[in-house]
Amino acid sequence: MWVDPSDDPRGGEPTTDERGCLLDYLRNYRLTFEMKLDGLDAEQLARRSVPPSTLSLLGLLRHLADVEVSWFRQCLAGEDTARRYRTEADRDADFNGAVADDAVVAEAWEYWRAEVANTERVSEGLSDMDAYVEWRGEQIQVRDVLVHMVEEYARHVGHADLLRECIDGRTGQ
Question: What is the top-level taxon of the source organism (predicted)?
Fold first, then answer.
């Protein structure tokens, strides 16, 4: 899974401002996450880590798509949009519904990519890192949302690295 530096889609020219730095980290973690899942079939993506855990790569993909909805559509854009998987009835539906089915995998990738594209559109309008938005009765700073998203992806890329190694032994940067 090691990528030659000349072929690595991550990186590029470093930014010097805080907003650009956080968005670059987020973009690179998303790309790393996508690389960790590359080339796996539905069974491998849905394979659970260790019983009784429901953790799987497909579950992480579904989870991260819903996280994009929460923080960018609901929080920053103020949209009244429901997450696709997580509900009050099943707070772990993102993982519970991650089954070895090609249609489930295709839908998860489509949803995640659409939400990442939406996040990039929303992020274009984020100029004031000190600004606050009200969400769920709290005041949240734009900076905190971006830092949280970097942290969210960083944590789950670590999970994905371990899950991928268990599936086929592949590791990488």
Answer: Bacteria
